[in-house]
Amino acid sequence: MQYGIYIDQNRCMGYFACVVACKDWHDVPAGPASWLRVKTIENGKYPSLFVAFLPMMCYHCLKPACPVNAITKRENDGIVTVDRETCLGKDTGKTD
């Protein structure tokens, strides 16, 4: 079995509250580092403009890439876990 994350992109207003909530949940310090990013998509010309926001989080790869194996995927449910002590980005604030 593998779980997934569903986001109704039509309801995303680009407030970045999901980024703040993710950082709080995972104890990521204040600053630019984040496990969840929101991409802004802009298209068109005035007066016909299009703006959308695309939340991009861990996509739960089949084999997460990590040089020190700090990112693993559980066999039983497909959840991706990060070993914070092993992760190379723990001291620099970088997550990838």
Tell me about this structure.
By secondary structure, the chain is mainly beta. It has a single domain (9-87), classed as Alpha-Beta Plaits (2-Layer Sandwich), CATH 3.30.70.20. It is 9% helix and 25% strand. The chain is built from one helix and four strands. The chain has one helix spanning 17-25; strands at residues 37-45, 48-56, 71-73, 80-82. The strands form two sheets. Strands 1-2 form a two-stranded antiparallel ribbon. Strands 3-4 form a two-stranded antiparallel sheet. The longest helix has 9 residues, at 17-25. The protein is elongated, with a radius of gyration of 16 Å. The model is unreliable at 92-96 (pLDDT under 50).
Question: Keyphrases for this structure?
Answer:
single chain, 96 residues, mainly beta, Alpha-Beta Plaits, two-stranded antiparallel sheet, 4 strands, disordered C terminus
Task: Summarize the helices and strands and which ones pair or pack.
Elements: H1 17-25, E1 37-45, E2 48-56, E3 71-73, E4 80-82
Antiparallel strand pairs: 1-2, 3-4
CATH-assigned fold name = Alpha-Beta Plaits
Radius of gyration over C-alpha positions, nearest whole angstrom: 16 Å
The CATH C-level name is: Alpha Beta
**Shape, principal axes of CA atoms:** elongated
CATH architecture: 2-Layer Sandwich
Helix content: under 10%
The N- and C-terminal alpha carbons lie at a distance of: 26 Å
Question: Which structural class matches the secondary elements?
Answer: mainly beta
Strand count, sense and closure of the main sheet?
A: 2 strands, antiparallel
As residue ranges, the low-confidence spans are: 92-96
Number of domains: 1
Helix-strand pattern, N to C?
HEEEE
